[in-house]
Structures are given as structure tokens and as C-alpha cells.
Acetylornithine aminotransferase (Rhodovulum marinum), 396 residues
Amino acid sequence: MIPSILPTYNRAPLEFERGEGTWLIATDGTRYLDFGAGIAVNALGHAHPALVAALTDQAGKLWHLSNLYRIPEQQALADALVAATFADTAFFTNSGTEACELAVKMARKYWYDKGQPDRVNIVTFAGCFHGRSSAAIAAAGTEKMVKGFGPLLPGFVHLPFPAHGDELTGAIDDTVAAVMIEPVQGEGGIRPLPDACLKGLRDLCDETGALLIFDEVQCGMGRTGRLFAHEWAGVAPDIMMVAKGIGGGFPLGAVLATEAAAAGMTPGTHGSTYGGNPLACAVGKAVLDIVGDPAFLDAVNRKAGLLRQRLEGLVAAHPDVFEQVRGAGLMLGLKCRVPAADLVQAGYAQHLLTVPAADNVVRLLPPLTVTEEDIAEAVARLDAAASAVTPKEADT
Ligand SMILES: Cc1ncc(COP(=O)(O)O)c(C=O)c1O
């Protein structure tokens, strides 16, 4: 018999009722150290007082208002995002997938309005993940994502990751509306794109006119130690997808864009009933006020350095379990020699939550508010988990 919840997830038998900072408390009272943070969503940990206050204050005033009217909380968040980024304008969504949908529509409409309606292709890269809608699965293009869900939305061109030289120049021609890429791949296995590649892509897009879309749904909002990951490379996109951390746990996403890239999105061309609602935007503004503070980002970088250093030590101590540490900031991956899922399971036994990713990687995505004590504790628990999964013959 089908369960009452559609069984699209293989859920761990863990049930939580409360959270405090980096900790989740199970229904039986057991405390788990949360180094998954809802897959990079709980940027400020659980039950952060500023977010609880923003949400409850707004809940007593106004929950929902149609986008037929002005929404002051939405305006405040849009103004703050525009002030803090390359963007001139923002559209709010409820998820990263919806941000992907709009990014694709925006890029195609840009060329349509320029009199090139056939310039529709979106270039994406192996290992990418942009969501689960028809456009987003076509963007990924892998059998795992698309099998059984045809006919696929046409107009996506898939390149290797990272793509080099001729592969790129040959592929980005005058059929390409936009190039879409995660500056640090998340689901693909915590794979950062080298700065030189991001710069090269920017140059190529400038030469050909193709728009550059960064998907910062997972790597954005302070996760890598800058407000957005692309800032490290010193290049800006034309369009950017944001979600996850921007709402700190309240469903919120956004598409940020330059005025030129957004030119086709005139009244009536897009919409969302809930996108940009007062509750989400009040929380989003409270998140941005904290994460956008340079002192907060300095602390993220300091803690990221500490975590990375400790993880390098862990990898050296367990060469039969781990191959390498990779990633940026507090978006780190442990490439495993044993099945990554085994290490995640062994972590559960140590009351530590981590998240598996493709390429046999275990993701560590703690809240950005993680403390040095939390880091030391997590690494000690990972050490115990690694010992538990060490292949037997390596013990001798
Ligand atoms: C890079 C990236 N883009 C898009 C998405 C889709 O976001 P959502 O699950 O909020 O629809 C995700 C989700 O994991 C993601 O990591």
C-alpha cells in the first residue's frame, strides 16, 4: 500500500521536534549535531532569535498579500539585495526550482525581444542540479533525472564540467541564449569551479552576447564566506538564482538580474501567488541584515578555515576512508573511498547529521553560526564514524 506521504524520499528513521542553533533535538530527546542544516537552508541555525522575532512580528500583522498590491517587506528586501549585489532588480519565488524556471524564461525572452526568437539554448554542465521542474530536469539532462518524464523540454546543451577551451568556444554560439552554472556544484559533489573558469565563461559570454546565469541556490548567502560565491572570482552574472539560505528555513527564493537581462520581463510575463509574501520577505530581510554584515562573513571565513584544517587532519588519519576534502567556506565535501552513504549512516550512530552527494561525497553544510566547539565536536564524531566504517583488512 502506498504510504500517506508520496514515497519519493528514502527517509532516515530520525524524527526531530526542536532545534537550537547547530543542534536538533529528536522526539526521544537525543541531541544531534546538525552539519546538514536542511541542505544549506538553516543558514543561521535553528530558532535564531532574530528570525523568530521577524517571523512572529510579521505573523501578527499580515501573512499574505497579492502581488497586485505593493508589499513593503518585499520592497525592503529587494532594495537590500540590489544594494548588496550586481543586480538591478529581483523577483521573489518560493524555491530554487522556481528561480530556475524564471531564469530560463528571462534569458529566452531577452533574445525574443531582441528579434532573435530562435536563440533559445541554455548551456549547462555535467553534474549540475537546478531543481525538479520540467525545465530544471532538462537542464540536468541525466538519465537519473529525466527517465520516464518525457517529452523533455528542448533547448538545453550539456557540456562536461569543467569545460575547457574549444569545448566551450565551440558550444557557445549564436543559438545560445544563456550559460547556466553553479559556481560551486552542490548535489554534484561539492565541486568548485576554478575562478579562472568563471572568468573565462564571463569573457566568452561577453564576446558572444550569451547571458551568464549563476545558480547560487546552494552556494550563495554567505555559504562560501562571501555574500555570493562568484564574488571570490571577481566576476558578476547577468542573472542569478538564489534560494535555500536566503530564507533561513522559511521558503523563499529569488532571481536577481541586471536591468538589461531583465528587459523582457514586462507586466504579465511572469507571476507567483506566494512569491515575495510578507512573511517570507520579513524573514529574508532579517537573514540578509545578519549575513550581509562583513564581520559575520569574516567569522564564517575564520570558522571555515578551522573546519577545513581539522578535516584535512581527519583525511590524513583515515586514508582508507577518505580521499580528499574539497569545497569552499562552510560548503565542504569529503570525497570517500568507502560508500559515502555508509559514512552518513555511521554519523547518525554518532548523532551527527551530514548529507550525501554525487561523486561519493559526504557534504558538510553547518549553519553559518556554527561555533568552534561545534566544529571540534563534529570532527570528533566524524572521526568515530570513520573508524566504524574503516575496511576490516586495513586494520591489520
Ligand atoms: C544549486 C541548486 N539549484 C536549485 C535547487 C532547487 O532548489 P529547490 O529544492 O528549493 O527547488 C537546488 C536544491 O538543492 C540546488 O542545490
Q: What stands out?
A: The pocket of pyridoxal-5'-phosphate is lined by residues 39, 95-97, 100, 129-131, 182, 186-187, 215, 217-218, 243 (CB under 6 Å). The longest strand covers residues 322-328.
